[in-house]
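We were asked to recover a plausible sequence for a given structure. The inputs and outputs are reproduced exactly as logged, with field labels preserved.

PROBLEM: sequence recovery
POSITIONS: 769
GIVEN STRUCTURE:
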């Protein structure tokens, strides 16, 4: 018996080793080849693919089409599954991979019918070559990418429409496909006293930092004779979920502010973070008769799925983006019995039966909300219109100066962005870039939440003749998702929820504090985690806790005596002040919104109060009794309740002095598949759980899974002095040496060279016979 048990044990070990070896072999089978030679169908001449120690790719070939074909192969082999997620998320096809859990997501996107719209767009030769490269790259792997093995799925061929869907996915991420905020405010206006609605919809604050015009300033509080909150119906309103700011920073200094006349551009786009990162670093080199000197040499960040450098520098011009938050969508009421077209959509579901889904459309757009009587609201969104995505962005690679880049911008249609440009002669410019509504003058919304009147025609889109600021007198430019425009141009552009101006103001003031800049100076501004926005809130908290006899407030007093002034990982006082302000805001907004929530009932939608600091601060500073939420007897009681609630919540986690900001702001940057795996396996699919400095309302925006998706500081013509960062590495494969390469530099803000380093791997692609 003992002998048989021993034999069974060793048999089990052999089977276990064999199974592990087989799994290891299969996982390694989907790694991208790095060295040697390979063939690629359709190439006209060889293309060289080199990688440096971080996995940054350089593609060098004899034509743009050949290089784009090779780029498609590289993207597919390093990021094929992530490309698939992008196209599926835009098209509403995630259920085919993940099953019923993704059905609601798919329905929310399927109503826009973006796959159908993408299929109608023209296909260029460059895009066709890229698509063919993607498909050959995917089929050239020995084993399909590892996430498909776990999901027991197979990748489907890439199409030209899928590349356009990748662009549509950015529309969905950077704009709101449901346009809910506009509708939420419209419903508030229908039931609120005008003075209360005017307070909540105040469109700015003393933090505003526009490029054109002045700060709007904080709201002027209405008197008790105009609005008495305590006389209105009240009731509980749950605190709003904390929202991440989807946005970015970019700023530039002209040659007059540098030692040798170079213009310098800084760009960091803030997005939800995952592993691998959304961007892919690449350098493209090829002859081009239309480029200066007859050659393109462009470096920067590509988006797997698109044959283009999205932000970067080509030796003559550097460019970067921030999301603009102009108004790109309008609801229009649909009366009962209105004429509609019905489209039958079928959603494939992994492990289940397909789900049929009906989309109803009017001439204005798809109906997103329909009531039992047949009435509702139809949405017209820029992304619905023909030509909403164009690949003219790729032509920036051959732009020779600022003026040439601005001509390319006229033809570029992507989600509306703040484009910053710098050129090798020292010039800089800002321009509103991308597709925007071409509303007629009589159909401009009265404010950001107004609906066009019933007689308004369905508007087309345009990308030319956009507002711009070229060669600014102050030699400095900055944008950070806040309001940039003013006056008539702002009326035309509209406001879809500009971010609070604290971040933009901090960047502006840092730029104006010096007369000489280098690349490292601009990186320091990107990494600025000073909590200027919360300084005055620390003073408020100190007035609440100082000299208090309450034990809870005494504990808070002890840990907030020293104001760190930074969102640093070891700061306790920052975490306390931030939490205190958040609880005060929740209490105040609950009081202001309670009458509307009670009146609207099931029609209630949560508004996004992005400019609320311009209301909250006057309320807390002036403390008018007639605007105090009805659940409190005095403003002091509200502030004390916020402080004690914070102390109770954090003390439950342990000693208050150990509740640092880094404990709260710890990286959770993981592969999407990790959520479906056991906890033990998840750590292999995540970046290290580092405590992270930074937060909202400062240049160094950072949350556990949100923040700068890239950083770039570069002067065109001086790329060798440039700096770059990326969270996560180049490869989407956890066994790749490039899975997390460069991530540690990103976390700690260490400069990484903008250009690729010395070659460590070389793969030569040759034309297939």
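RECOVERED SEQUENCE:
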């Amino acid at each position: 018996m003992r002998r048989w048990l021993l034999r069974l044990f060793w048999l089990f070990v052999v089977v276990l080793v064999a199974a592990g070896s087989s799994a290891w072999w299969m996982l390694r089978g989907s790694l991208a080849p790095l060295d040697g030679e390979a063939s690629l169908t359709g190439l006209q001449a060889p293309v060289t693919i080199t990688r440096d120690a971080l996995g940054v790719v350089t593609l060098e070939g004899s034509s743009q089409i050949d290089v784009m074909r090779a780029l498609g192969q590289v993207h597919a082999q390093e990021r094929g599954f992530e490309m698939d997620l992008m196209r599926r998320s835009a098209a509403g096809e995630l259920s085919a991979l993940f099953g019923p859990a993704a059905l609601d997501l798919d329905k929310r996107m399927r109503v826009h019918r973006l796959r159908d719209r993408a299929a109608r767009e023209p296909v260029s030769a460059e895009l066709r070559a890229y698509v063919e490269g993607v498909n050959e790259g995917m089929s050239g792997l020995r084993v399909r990418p590892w996430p498909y093995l776990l999901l027991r799925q197979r990748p489907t061929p890439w199409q030209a429409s899928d590349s356009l869907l990748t662009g549509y996915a950015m529309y969905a991420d950077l704009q709101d496909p449901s346009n809910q905020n506009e509708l939420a405010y419209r419903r508030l206006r229908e039931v609120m006293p005008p003075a209360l609605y005017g307070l909540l919809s105040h469109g700015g604050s003393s933090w505003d930092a526009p490029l054109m015009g002045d700060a709007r300033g904080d709201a002027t509080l209405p008197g008790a004779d105009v609005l008495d909150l305590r006389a209105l119906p009240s009731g509980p309103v749950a605190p709003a979920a904390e929202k991440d700011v989807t946005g970015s920073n970019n700023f530039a200094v002209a040659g007059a502010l540098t030692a040798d006349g170079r213009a310098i551009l800084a760009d960091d786009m803030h997005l939800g973070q995952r592993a691998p990162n959304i961007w892919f670093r690449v350098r493209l080199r090829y002859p081009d008769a239309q480029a200066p000197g007859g050659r393109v040499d462009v470096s920067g960040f590509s988006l797997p799925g698109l044959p283009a450098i999205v932000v970067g520098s080509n030796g003559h011009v550097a460019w970067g983006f921030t999301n603009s938050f102009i108004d790109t969508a309008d609801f229009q009421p649909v009366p009962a019995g209105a004429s509609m077209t019905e489209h039958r959509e079928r959603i494939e579901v992994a492990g289940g039966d397909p789900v049929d889904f009906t989309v109803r459309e009017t001439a204005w757009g798809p109906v997103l909300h329909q009531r039992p009587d047949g009435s509702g609201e139809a949405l017209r969104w820029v992304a619905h219109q023909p030509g909403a995505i164009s690949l003219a962005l790729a032509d920036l690679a051959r732009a020779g100066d600022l003026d040439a880049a601005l001509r390319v911008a006229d033809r570029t249609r992507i989600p509306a962005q703040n484009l910053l440009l710098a050129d090798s002669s020292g010039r800089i410019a800002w321009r509103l870039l991308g597709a925007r509504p071409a509303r007629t003058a009589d159909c401009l919304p009265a404010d950001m939440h107004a609906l066009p009147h019933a007689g308004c025609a369905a508007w087309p889109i345009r990308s030319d003749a956009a507002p711009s600021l070229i060669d600014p007198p102050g030699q400095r430019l900055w944008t950070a998702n806040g309001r940039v425009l003013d006056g008539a141009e702002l009326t035309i552009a509209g406001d879809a929820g500009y971010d609070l101006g604290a971040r933009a103001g901090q960047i502006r003031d840092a730029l104006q504090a010096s007369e000489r800049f280098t690349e490292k100076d601009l990186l320091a501004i990107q990494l600025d985690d000073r909590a200027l926005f919360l300084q005055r809130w620390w003073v408020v908290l100190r007035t609440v806790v100082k000299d208090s006899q309450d034990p809870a407030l005494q504990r808070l007093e002890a840990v907030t005596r020293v104001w760190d002034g930074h969102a640093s990982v070891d700061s306790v006082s920052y975490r306390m002040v931030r939490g205190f302000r958040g609880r005060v805001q929740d209490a105040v907004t609950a009081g202001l919104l309670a009458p509307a929530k009670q009146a609207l009932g099931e029609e209630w939608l949560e508004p996004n109060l992005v400019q609320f600091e311009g209301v909250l601060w006057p309320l807390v500073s002036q403390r008018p009794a007639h605007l105090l939420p009805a659940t409190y007897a005095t403003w002091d009681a509200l502030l004390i309740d916020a402080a004690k609630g914070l102390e109770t919540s954090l003390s439950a986690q342990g000693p208050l002095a150990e509740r640092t900001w880094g404990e709260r702001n710890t990286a959770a940057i993981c592969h999407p598949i990790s959520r479906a795996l056991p906890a033990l396996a998840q750590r292999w699919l995540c970046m290290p759980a580092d405590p992270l400095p930074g937060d909202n309302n400062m240049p160094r925006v950072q949350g556990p899974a949100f923040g700068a998706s890239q950083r770039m500081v570069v002067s065109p013509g001086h790329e060798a002095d440039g700096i770059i960062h990326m969270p996560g590495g180049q490869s989407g494969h956890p066994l790749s040496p490039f899975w997390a390469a460069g991530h540690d530099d990103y976390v700690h803000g260490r400069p990484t060279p903008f250009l690729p380093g010395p070659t460590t791997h070389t793969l030569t692609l040759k034309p297939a016979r």
